[in-house]
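Quick log. Single chain, no ligands specified.
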Amino acid sequence: MAGEATKPPPGRAPDDLDPARAEGEKVGARIDAAFEKLARKMRARADKAHGKLDAATPAEKRAVLLRRYELYADAAAYLEERLVQRGERST
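-> predicted structure:
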């Protein structure tokens, strides 16, 4: 009885992944892809706001574009940091 807990279920090879673990890895990969896509989108928006910043002359417009750049850049940095953390946790 003591050794039964370590045996794989019948009908499954010992080197097969646990179905729950396989599903978790599949879902985790989809989450990582979504994080990457959103981070790229936020980074692109930050770059666009930064590019417009040089052409803006009114102080109010520059302030709005600068704040927009900061918010998008912060969001992208947060998402990229979370991706690194998720990668470290899965290895």
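The helical segments are 19-55, 59-90.
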